[in-house]
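Changelog note: in this version the structure field was regenerated for every chain. One regenerated record is shown below for reference.
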Amino acid sequence: MNGLALSRRYFERFGQSMLAELRARFPELEGQFCAGLAGHGSECFGFDDAWSEDHDFGPSFCLWLPRELFARYGAACQKAYDALPGEFEGHPARRVTAFGQDRVGVLCLEDFYFGLIGRESAPADLMEWMALPEDRLALAVNGEVFLDESGIFSGMRRALLAYYPEDVRLKKIAARAAAMAQSGQYNYSRLARRGEWTGAFLALDAFIRSTCSMVHLLNRSYTPYYKWMHRSLKNMPVLPEIYGLLDQLTAPFDSRSAWETAQDADFLLGIINTKDTRAVLIETICQLVIRQLHEQGLSDAQDLYLEAHALSVTGRIRDPRIAGLQLLEG
């Protein structure tokens, strides 16, 4: 069951008539309602499944009102919302955990965005854009708007969906390229060669996170938080193959013996241990990213090491404040 589709049907069956009754009672609410489902929860990304139904799941929707109207009519609207049927299409009423409060029901429009990104409006300055975490932006634009009579909510949503200004995107791409080079192409192998396997796997974790973010940036899509950052790559238009390569990268494999038994002849370019599947996959992923940077006209570096491309991308940034940030910042 897709929770977002369930939410829409529940709104169409019960929410629409509830709004009609509220408009009749409070004429000032005419043309002011916005309804949908967005924000926290796997169903808002469309990633929910049967396992998702054990908490914070059930027939429900969000009803957003501007702050002034929320202050005056929010309690009455919430009372009407609470009176809606709980069970719907065989699904029990939403079971809310301590961490699932205030995700659905009647919400203040401005507070909803502020709670997610710390702002009530889209940034006007490049440095303000730089400060917004990708995963919070992903929460602010996911889900679906079922109804927006005033257009205020959707206006904010469109401004965020327009994506980062290009200089900000370039800076983040450069930072991810540098991080992929440092954690994957460099530190994973150095730590593995030393037998520092906990460190090697921490480097692998950093590489995976940076890679997921890089693919999102190249697709002009915000990266969800760690639980969904890999799942969200699955149907990306650009570099969808990296989804499967990361699955291979985390599959069970005896990397330790691959390094213990490696001979000089096993090393490609003197660096890449061809006996270690993970080292080979890291390099494969990096070369796919480099090819895409070339295709998008973001780098003209001719180097197998991603840090060179990070510097090339940085050279395309026009704003001196952004270009002057430390390479890994972003």
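Spot check on this record: Strands lie at 34-37, 62-65, 105-108, 144-148, 267-268, 272-273. The two ends are 37 Å apart (CA to CA).
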